[in-house]
Amino acid sequence: MSTQCKVDRIRDAYDLSNLEARIRHRRENEDASLRSLEAFLNQLILQRSMENAGMAVLDGEAENYYRLLTDEEVTESARREAESELQQEGLDIEQVTEDFVSYRTIKKHLNECLRISTSREYEPDVDSERTRLSKLAARVKTVASKILDRLEAHEGIHIEDPRVSIDIHVRCGNCNRRHDLLEFLHGTGVCPCVEGAVPGQEKEEL
User: At residue 185, what are phi and psi to the nearest 5 degrees?
Assistant: First the structure.
């Protein structure tokens, strides 16, 4: 049984020369995040697969196909179309996506193989996290709408023109106030009770 980590196996399988040096440079000299290193390696895997299939890969083409295959915001029809195009060129999409690495795999490779520490202080980016939550809510809304439309079309449910809304709330464990999460992150991000602004006020109803 091979003792190589997945990154090393991918390097050998796809003949990615100088991979360790390129990862090290991006991490140590460009301060690349684990997520960006994950995308970097997976795009290399996809590009090499496209080249091995005989495709003339244009600048940015592998990156665009990777986005179409993995981005949660891409529609299902666009993803299937991208998969079909690559399969017609001779790519084994199932094998390629199985070879994609996760950021956890990257982290393990950095720590155990390259001896590069990944222990960094977390620097909060409220706007970025709010954007992620907003995209997640939009994705859930889209999926829920499709499910309801399918059920209604086949008479699994009976409702006229169903319209889905997704609201995410967070409740303070101290004063029991309930906040709209996206508005909370867009505002101060501080519950009034923490500032001592609401002593003695009645708690909201559960």
Answer: -75, -30
Angstrom distance (rounded) from CA 22 to CA 106: 13
Q: What is the pLDDT of residue 185?
A: 87
Q: Domain boundaries in the chain?
A: 6-113, 126-195
CA 113 to CA 197: how far, in whole Å? 52
pLDDT of residue 89: 94
* C-alpha distances out from residue 200 to 174, 189, 195, 204, Å: 12, 21, 13, 12
- The answer to whether residues 68 and 82 touch, using CB atoms and an 8 Å cutoff, is yes
pLDDT score for 201: 41
Q: Which of 53-67, 126-140, 169-183 has the highest mean pLDDT?
A: 53-67
What is the rounded average pLDDT of the residues 12-37? 92
Q: What is the CA radius of gyration of the chain?
A: 23
Query: Token pair for residue 139?
Result: 């994705």
More confident residue, 196 or 82: 82
List the beta bridge partners of residue 180: 169
Dihedral angle sign, alpha carbons of residues 16, 20, 25, 26 = positive
Our measurement of the distance from residue 147's CA atom to the centroid of its chain's CA atoms, rounded to an integer in Å, reads 23
d(CA 55, CA 91): 10
Q: Is 38 helix (H, G, I), strand (E, B) or coil?
A: helix
Structure tokens at 60: 């940015």
3-state secondary structure at position 136: helix
- Count the residues in the chain: 206
